[in-house]
Amino acid sequence: MQIDVKSVSALLLGWFVPGLGHVHLKKYWKGGIFFVCIVSMTALGLFMGGKIYSFQTENPLTILAFFSDIGNGLIFILSKIFSFGQGNLKNATFEFGTAYIAGAGLLNYLIALDAFDIASGKKK
Q1: What is the model's pTM?
Q2: Alpha carbons 102 and 104: distance in angstroms, whole number
Q3: How many domains does the chain have?
Q4: pLDDT per residue as tens digits for the range 33-89
Q5: Are 73 and 15 in contact, with CB atoms under 8 Å apart?
Q6: Which helix H or strand E contains 6, and what residues bound it?
Q7: How far is 85 from 12, CA to CA, in rounded Å?
């Protein structure tokens, strides 16, 4: 298996903005649907008062939450710049919102890997 620039760029673009790797590969419908689904899932999690975790070493579970949250790419970076996604423990929906955000990040990893597989010829 040979890894080329197109495969790696599809992977990185797909991680940075959900669906952008597919758009880069001219799979516009797939890219658009992935973008809408992942961004909607993340937005719903934020509206529920969910938290986007930073890297913390005192609890192993927060390390796992951090790695799932960085799967959101640009949204994770913007949350650190503009200080949103701090979470509100008083909300009854805090845990659900946090799970939506983490789930969106994990799904975005899979979507970026799908774009990589398409670009490398493993999948059509």
Answers
A1: 0.92
A2: 5
A3: 1
A4: 999 999 999 999 999 999 999 998 888 889 999 999 999 999 999 999 999 999 988
A5: yes
A6: helix 5-16
A7: 23
C-alpha–C-alpha distance, residues 95 and 116, integer Å: 32
Domain that holds residue 76: 5-120
* pLDDT tops 70 at residue 1: no
Two structure tokens written together for 5:
């620039």
Q: Taking phi first (over 0 means left), then psi (-120 to 50 degrees means alpha), and beta for anything else, what does residue 83 get?
A: left
Gap between the Cα atoms of 87 and 43, Å rounded: 13
Single-letter amino acid, residue 64:
L
Mean pLDDT of the chain: 94
Q: In angstroms, rounded to a whole number, what is the distance separating the alpha carbons of residues 10 and 5?
A: 8
